[in-house]
Amino acid sequence: MAAAPKEATNAIGLEDICTEKQEPPKGQKTFTVEEAVETIGFGRFHIALFLIMGSTGVAEAMEIMLIAVVSPLIRCEWHLQDWQVALVTTMVFFGYMVFSIVLGLLADRYGRWKILLLSFLWGAYFSLLTSFSPSYIWFVFLRTMVGGGVSGHAQGLIIKTEFLPTKYRGYMLPLSQVFWLAGSLLIIGLASVVNPTIGWRWLIRIASIPGIILILVFKFIPESARYNVSTGNDEAATATLRRIAKMNRAAMPEGILREPANERRGRFKDLIHPKYLRTTLQIWIIWLGIAFAYYGVILASAELLERDLVCGSPAPAGEEAGDGSEESRSPCHCRLFGPSAYQTMIISTVGEIALNPVNILGINFLGRRLSLCITMACTALFFLLLNICTSSAGMTGFLFMLRALVSANFNTIYIYTAEVYPTTMRALGMGTSGSLCRVGAMVAPFISQVLMSASFIGALCLFASVCVVCAISAFTLPIETKGRALQVCM
């Protein structure tokens, strides 16, 4: 296949990275999946893809954010100490970490769609079981299983990435943050109504509904054509591309689909191949740091609101949490969220989309590496600013900006990771990155909910330092994926 000069500068030639190239019959026109995707262009199929696969973010956000709004209630019901509350979140991400690698391997071997469906079935089942937890131990175990199911949701982003034309990836993938925001706001809104009335168990049951609904609509999205050609199933890939072309009312490229099949799929040692070793190690550092900062912000917000901390000092003993109503204190003298606390959580959560337009511009014009470096450095700055003695409004403003920045960080690294690896190891690359990401998420609760109580400035300096390391790592990444075609194999 001949490549245009411009593409040659932006992409690694497939002839150089594929070892099983097959020559087409003489005189027969051929095309690749990449050429077909670019020729068909963006249309109605991609809108449906964006809505359905993007909605996986709603279910994921509700399951992950659930712990932040349920923690005060289980603390009271089971008389938990700080470390026990932190352990719940840590174990959720432990489940995520373990299953993320396993599901990534399976997705590269057996398909993205199958693993996505399996992960939603798994997550919905154990989430519903969690609502019947008879004790703290059972609650921790079942939420760990939920974390394992949620880890497979990343396959939705991979499917979107592999179907989107190159020039649209930098715009459509960051917009998926809207769905995470919707899920976060939905669970906070539901918590403000359900928790004080029918309790946290019903909140968990209601939070399982979006995931169950999505299971029913997954049938409208096909398996990735890029995955099919990587397994040698050109017929299925061609049928999928024709379906997309028909929905978009566009023409298919002339000729037949012809790409090399590759049996080397989903192998961990490919991630540490000399070609990708430095990239992989730096991506792992960045994922770990971003998750540490992201969930640190979320849990620190909940901790600040639950304890009503301003300027690092506990609220006076006579003051009530939230709006000071009688209902804002439990019979066991634990502080629960009042209406004003939920309001502050909603305002800070909206911050997740505040920088989306700027983030999209940065990704597409500055590139993935520089954009991520800038937002990570700003995240470090705002962690330090959080230590400034200020009013509740000022604290809300800082939390708002932090949520905006950590969200932008996640947007960028998700896109970069999905683009930098070839199809034969893309799901595994995302899976291992997601696994390392959860290591940061596992540590975050003990910093936000335990260390912060002992040393407020110490916790904030730790968060800021990690963000600085990530900013340096992002700036020095060896590959820029802006404008680069997705690679098929290595």
Architecture overview:
The structure is a single chain. The chain is mainly α and 490 residues long. The protein folds into two domains: 29-262, MFS general substrate transporter like domains (Growth Hormone, Chain: A, Up-down Bundle), CATH 1.20.1250.20; 266-311 and 336-484, Growth Hormone, Chain: A (Up-down Bundle), CATH 1.20.1250.20. Helices cover 70% and strands 1% of the residues. It is built from 23 helices and two strands. It has helices at 5-10, 14-17, 33-40, 44-54, 56-77, 82-110, 112-130, 136-150, 154-163, 166-175, 177-194, 200-207, 209-217, 225-230, 234-248, 268-271, 277-307, 339-350, 356-366, 368-385, 392-420, 426-454, 456-475, and strands at 30-31, 256-257. Strands 1-2 form a two-stranded parallel sheet.
